[in-house]
Each structure stands twice: as C-alpha cells, then as structure tokens.
TrEMBL record:
It comes from the Bacteria. Gene3D superfamilies: Glutaredoxin. This is DsbA family dithiol-disulfide isomerase. InterPro entries: Rv2466c-like (IPR053977), Thioredoxin-like_sf (IPR036249). It holds the Pfam family Rv2466c-like. The lineage of its organism: Bacteria, Bacillati, Actinomycetota, Actinomycetes, Pseudonocardiales.
C-alpha cells in the first residue's frame, strides 16, 4: 500500500475541506506522508461559465477568488519557508472559513456570502512564525504561473472535468482520483475503511469512474443549517 499521497486542494471548497480532514485522520493512524498542493478552482474552472452557478448565488465567483487569494499566500509562504508550511496554512485558512458560525437565512446563498468575504490572513501567518507581509501576495499575480502549473499537473494525472480534492497516490506516476466527495469526516476505523476502499479503487487496473450526482452538503460549523441536505453545488 502506498505510504505517500499528494492532496490537491482549494481552501474555499467545502467538499475538499471535509475530505482533507479525513485524510489528516488517516495520517494519524497510518504511516502516510501527505504532501499538500494548491489547486485553485478559479483557474481549474477557467473556460466554464459562472452563469449557471450565479443562479445558486451571486457570490459564487467571488468565493473562488477568495480561494485563489489564499492559495497565492500559501505559495508565497512555501517559497520562503518550504513545503512543510503548506498543510498547516491550509488547515488554518480552512478553519477561518469553515469554522465560522452558521449565518442566518435559508439555503446556500447566505453560506456563499460568508465564503466570499475577504479575510485578514496576517494573524494566521504570525501565529505560524511567518512574515505577515506575505499576505500581500493575495492580490498579486507573480505566483499564478506556478499555481497554473499545479492545475496542469492535476489534469495530467487525473484528466479533465474534475474539481477538488484530487488524491494522487505514489506521486507523480501513480493513480489519481477526484474525490471522494463526502459530507462528514469519518474517524477511527471508519476512516481507515474508507481509505482502504478508496485506495483499492484507485489502484485497480483500468478503473476510471464511479459516480453519482446526488450529494448532500458537507457538515461544518459554517454550513450547519444546510448540512446533509441534498444539493447540486459542486
């Protein structure tokens, strides 16, 4: 069984967030080296119209921009402090979003408006012993070429028509999958059962896809009022 995984992520994706917390749990129980790689949905979805998604929420494009901004800061921090900071920054930035209190109002739009809010990333950088000025990278484009290279690499490994998360086993040449898409974090033996099942499918010769479009919304503090309800959000 592979003991090395690359996890392609965007902090603004709720499905990615839940899956990432599951992978962290697996890493506590198995000898698993996880390498975290930024994958901005704002770039991954280039060429895909946001018009349909605006019908769900006008804040959809801005939420993906927030994800890109956080990933630019993560890339800037990685450039000066090395890849070891990436997972910690993902965790802390993700907590800024997904541990927010559930907003008032019905449906997904109030949640999306919170997702689309700009956040002060400097305190997180300071807490991790990093230069808070790295937060200025959020609005720059100097690091976008490297982020775009991550997008191209994720597509090379997993194909098109994918989102986050992407799990890449035994990278760079092992199998990669988009998903699993789950609505809550399994712990203990449940986490390991799901890991073993996912790994089995990923490494099965010729396996390509197992999918259903019906899904329920992830369970986080921010999404508590809509968690487990049926959604078409991607």
């Amino acid at each position: 069984m592979s003991d090395e995984l690359e996890f392609f992520f965007d902090p603004i994706c709720p499905f990615c967030w839940v899956t990432s917390r599951w992978v962290v749990e697996v890493g506590r129980r198995r000898e698993l080296a996880v390498h975290w790689r930024p994958l901005p949905l704002a770039m991954l979805n280039e060429g895909i119209s946001y018009e349909e998604r605006r019908k769900v929420s006008e804040s959809y494009p801005d939420s993906h921009l927030r994800g890109l901004e956080m990933l630019r800061v993560i890339a800037a921090a990685e450039a000066v402090a090395g890849p070891g900071v990436v997972g910690d920054l993902y965790t802390r930035f993700g907590e800024l979003v997904w541990d927010s209190p559930a907003p008032d109002g019905e449906g997904f739009d109030p949640v999306m408006r919170v997702m689309a809010q700009q956040r002060d990333l400097r305190p997180v950088l300071e807490d991790l012993g990093l230069d808070p000025a790295l937060a200025d990278a959020a609005t720059g484009t100097d690091l976008d070429e490297g982020l775009a290279a991550n997008v191209a690499e994720a597509r090379r490994r997993c194909g098109d028509d994918v989102g986050t998360p992407i799990l890449s086993f035994s990278p760079p040449d092992g199998p990669a999958l988009f998903g699993p898409v789950i609505d809550s974090v399994p712990f203990g033996e449940d986490a390991l059962r799901l890991w073993d099942a996912t790994y089995t499918l990923a490494t099965w010769p010729g396996f390509a896809e197992l999918k259903r479009s019906l899904r329920s919304f992830p369970d986080t503090p921010l999404t508590a009022r809509i968690a487990h309800g049926e959604t078409t959000v991607r």
